[in-house]
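Appendix B. Worked example

We walk through a single record from start to finish. Start with the input: the chain for YCII-related domain-containing protein, Cryobacterium roopkundense, length 110.
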Amino acid sequence: MEYMLFICTDSTAPTTEPTVHTIEEWVAETTDGGTRRHGDRLRPANAATTVKLRGGCLSVTAGPFAETTEWIAGYDVIECGDLDEAIEIASRHPMAQLGQIEIRPMWPIE
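Next comes the structure step. The output line below is what the pipeline stores for this chain.
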């Protein structure tokens, strides 16, 4: 099953360096191991544009959809046997120590 990892900042996290891997090492390890499908960094939340269509009226606003101190900094798509494996892989990502990682199973359109 494929899982989306939302790599998020966390304003309450310590500002120390991760003790496990660098992001480059984690990417290389999971890519070489065949688990990571793709991923990338995202520009900061202030570079976001939010689009809504309500009652036929288009609304386009600068910035993220919610005011928050945390934001999605990047993403990775991984292929795992189950959620336990996805948790184990996410726990090795440096942002698990410096931020937080949300794991969501992919839900393909069929």
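Two observations about the output. The mean pLDDT is 88. The two ends are 15 Å apart (CA to CA).
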